[in-house]
Amino acid sequence: MSLELPATLALAALLLAGVLLVAALHSWRRRRWLQGGRRGMGGLLLLGLALLTGSVAANLHTYSRLTAERPVATLAFAATGPARFEALLTLPGGDSAVYPLEGDEWQLDARVLTWRGPARLFGLDNLYRLERLSGRWRDPDRERTGPRSVHSLAEAAGLDLWALAREHGRWLPWVDAVYGSAAYLPLSDGARYAVVLGPSGLLARPLDPAAETAVRGWRSD
């Protein structure tokens, strides 16, 4: 099962809430106040549950399924000036965008959600979401004082379950782990990299000679 489960639960709770609220109105019209009150209270509780579950579902739909090691992006770089580059980021589905970066290295950040207990029994997939792409400087002094280029890749939607689990994990026992992961490698004109996400987090690999040469020089410094 997958991301459709929270949305299905929200829809079911919403339908039941509607049935109970209609039944409550019917009871009140017949002056059955106690029965109507119970049904109305039940309907309101289910309505609240539907809204909460729907908010969680909306947030989870900003993530992608994580099954074993899988590709999450390819990056291609073209120099536009000294320590300035255009980064073409392409997602597995084919969507792409261009971002300007400054620095001598690039970094891609992601969020990861994994499940346990009832969530795994219901078949929820582990999830990831790309967070941001940024340029960085290898020299610490230049990293502190040099120009920064940071681009958000994530949509803000619904209840932020990742942040909630980090702050109040003991109240969410069905969330096994929430962690951030990042990969970074050198910027170089014409370089292309593949980024995959596996059990240990994000991994970046060179895809062409320009990237391989840049990585060899970067590792030998």
Largest sheet: 5 strands, antiparallel
**Total tally of structural domains:** 2
**Radius of gyration over all CA atoms, rounded:** 24 Å
First-last Cα distance = 47 Å
| Low-confidence blocks of residues | none
Organism: Thioalbus denitrificans
Keywords: Membrane, Transmembrane, Transmembrane helix
Protein name: Cation/multidrug efflux pump
Topology:
Layout: H1 4-29, H2 33-60, E1 64-66, E2 70-81, E3 84-90, E4 96-102, E5 105-115, H3 118-121, E6 126-136, H4 140-145, E7 149-152, H5 161-167, E8 175-186, E9 192-198, E10 201-206, H6 209-220
Antiparallel strand pairs: 1-6, 2-3, 2-9, 3-4, 5-6, 5-8, 6-7, 9-10
Helix pairs in contact: 1-2
Transmembrane segments: 6-28, 40-60
Organism: Thioalbus denitrificans
Keywords: Membrane, Transmembrane, Transmembrane helix
Explain this structure to me?
The protein has 221 residues and is α+β, with helices and mostly antiparallel strands. It has 2 domains: 4-60; 64-220, no CATH class. The protein is 38% helix and 36% strand. It contains 6 helices and 10 strands. Strands 1, 5, 6, 7 and 8 form a 5-stranded antiparallel β-sheet that branches. A 5-stranded antiparallel β-sheet has the order 4-3-2-9-10. Helix 1 (4-29) packs antiparallel against helix 2. It is elongated, with a radius of gyration of 24 Å. The two termini are 47 Å apart. The mean pLDDT is 75.
